[in-house]
Amino acid sequence: MATSISASNCESFVDFALQEGVLRFGEFMTKSGRLSPYFFNAGLFNHGASVGRLGQFYAQALIDAGIDFDMLFGPAYKGIPLATTAAISLSSHPRLAGRSIPFAFNRKEAKAHGEGGTLVGAPLKGKVVIIDDVITAGTSVNESVDIIRSAGAEPVAVLIALDRMERAGNDHELSTNSAVQEVALRHGMPVIAIANLENILAVIRERAEFAQYEAAVLAYRQRYGI
């Protein structure tokens, strides 16, 4: 099951994503081959100020969720800067009383020289939160869980920026669950989302400049949503 932070913070995040051009409306072909009326690309958080603020949203979502954790893991490649900025923000969060949060990430290919291996950063141990942008098929989460468990650590949650609240699978074989729900059920741990499709719709309804997209988003949700 996905959890999220307070509605006001969720909508603040949607506003932030719109301001940075990370969330856009129009017609976009998704990785799953669906024609979507909106698109979210966390790779467009691409300058210091935006990445710093993004880390604060990740940190607050994790604190609000009340998850007991020891460190963060960012799957290559997008998860690497996300885990880094989240760790920085968590280490300065007043609720953690100056506790420094370690993090690690993986390489796509093993390094053959120096220290070698596929892992970079702090040793994987204790309770680990996986940090990513969205969940489409759950592949990076599945790989991350295997890496964490192989190191003798325990994956306890996944923290993502946006839950699209879409049914998993393709048009010929749609699941009754979303990709997020399937990940949570498969691994027996919560998926925390900073925001979701409901929050996007709330902002559309509140902002006149986006009203033209409401019908298309609702139709898409009717077809693919949970």
Automatic annotation (TrEMBL):
The keyword Transferase applies. 5-phospho-alpha-D-ribose 1-diphosphate binds at residues 31, 77-78, 107-108, 111, 113, 132-140. Pathway: Pyrimidine metabolism; UMP biosynthesis via de novo pathway; UMP from orotate: step 1/2. SUPFAM superfamilies: PRTase-like (SSF53271). Keywords: Glycosyltransferase, Magnesium, Pyrimidine biosynthesis, Transferase. It catalyses: orotidine 5'-phosphate + diphosphate = orotate + 5-phospho-alpha-D-ribose 1-diphosphate. The keyword tRNA-binding does not apply. Catalyzes the transfer of a ribosyl phosphate group from 5-phosphoribose 1-diphosphate to orotate, leading to the formation of orotidine monophosphate (OMP). Belongs to the purine/pyrimidine phosphoribosyltransferase family. PyrE subfamily. PANTHER family: OROTATE PHOSPHORIBOSYLTRANSFERASE 1-RELATED. Homodimer. This is Orotate phosphoribosyltransferase. It comes from Orrella daihaiensis. The gene is pyrE.
